[in-house]
Amino acid sequence: YVILKSLVLLLLCSSLYGFFGRMFGLPFVTASLPHSPQFVRALQIRDESTRRVTRVVDNRIAPFMVYLFCGLALFIPTSAGPKLLELIPKGVVYGILTFVGVAGVLPETGNQLSRRLLLLFSFPSEFPPNEPYTGVPMKTMHVYTFFQAGALIICWVITLASGFGSSQFWQYLGIFFPLWIVALIPIRKRVIPMFIREHELRSHLDTEDEQLADLSGLVF
């Protein structure tokens, strides 16, 4: 209950800021920061036998210090005149954002979809025995992987649709991105169970939600 209350309060504050802040020209904010899970993963401790997270060393001080120094850089002047932040090359900023994005999808960072995509080109004898998604038949695991990869490709196509052509179809396709995200809910609840049994989804394939819940309990 405490975890849920904290998350709801965070989303409420972000929504209010985004609604009223835009009226005064302030930048739009989002609560889904891609580097936040990386902070937690970098500071977590796992049980070597079960590979489950047992403890998170710290997840508040490190992000706070990062944002504190970023904020101070806005006000620290230099001898040359411009502020310190203005002297940072844009290539450095783009490099950091690229690293954050790429590191979030690598198999080594715990991304289950990336790991299962690699298993498409691996022999069954090379499947990791301690991972829950290898506890189902190989065909079932690959079907679930194709569903997830297909949904991701559609998200990518919708996001980049404006660059595919000058017709109105491609120009307005991007507005359907939120609808596609919402459509993933009935796809998971109604369509995927037509191909994969529900108990296999809950106990073996949809384990990232369970890991997130466990991790949230350790974080909060």
- Count of distinct strands: 2
Within the largest sheet, what's the order of strands?
1-2
Class inferred from helices and paired strands: mainly alpha
Shape descriptor: globular
**Average predicted local confidence, pLDDT:** 75
Distance between the termini: 11 Å
Helix segment count?
A: 10
The portion of residues assigned to helices is 55-70%
Q: Which series of helices and strands comes N to C?
A: HHEEHHHHHHHH
Query: Any low-confidence stretches, pLDDT <50, length ≥5?
Result: 212-220
**Biggest beta sheet summary:** 2 strands, antiparallel
Radius of gyration: 21 Å
Portion of residues in beta strands equals: under 5%
Please explain how this structure is put together.
The protein is mainly α and 220 residues long. The chain is 56% helix and 3% strand. The chain is built from ten helices and two strands. A two-stranded antiparallel ribbon has the order 1-2. A hairpin with a 6-residue loop joins strand 1 and strand 2. The termini are close together.
Task: Please provide a brief summary of the model.
This protein has 220 residues and is mainly alpha-helical. It has helices at 2-21, 36-42, 61-72, 90-103, 112-119, 138-159, 168-172, 177-191, 198-205, 207-219, and strands at residues 44-46, 53-56. The longest helix is centred in the C-terminal third of the chain and has 22 residues, at 138-159.
Give keywords:
220 residues; mainly alpha; two-stranded antiparallel ribbon; 2 strands; 3% strand; disordered C terminus
